[in-house]
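Annotated sample (chain length 202).
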Amino acid sequence: MKYTAIVDYGVGNLKSVANAMAYVGQQTLVTGDAGELERADAIILPGVGAFPDAAEKLREMGLDKVLLAQTGRKPILGICLGMQLLFDRGEEGKCCEGLGLVSGSVERIQTGFKLPHIGWNSLSFQNDSPLFLGLDDGTYVYFVHSYCGHARREEDVTARTQYGPSILAAVSHNGVYGCQFHPEKSGDAGLQILKNFGELNR
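Output written by the structure step:
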């Protein structure tokens, strides 16, 4: 049976992601086991908290190497902090290496608005992504973050939002996808995104 592995590395909203995937008919397994990630048909990397702590936990468990090895073999989706970890480096507290699956960096949002950025914002789509099939430009999704990605290649950016300045909201490169927002908390639109991701491994 096909399944999506949700990476358990001590950081993340695992149950909400698993419940949302189940709602759209996708089999999942929450696991921190390298073998299970290798056997999975797709991988979701969630994350809540600080970039350096999360990156360190991934490396302590050896899961960074597993994710790198699985890139290009199966779809991978990073959510919120999980998306930020896809980049080359993060600058939250201290400069720290990420997974390097998307070229660029993660930096504090430069805005006159209150941080963290919490709430519903609309997406502006660019560079077609299969994650957004069936969704209209201007779709609202739910964000919680103070840092955001800066992609070196604009062709990797698939959605932006506005919070004062334009902020990167989603990326895609070589079968790796990232959502800065929380699809599992974004109502029907978020469920459609997770369903679309689940369809990639069929």
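Annotation: The chain has six helices and 14 strands.
Annotation: Residues 187-199 form the longest helix (13 residues).
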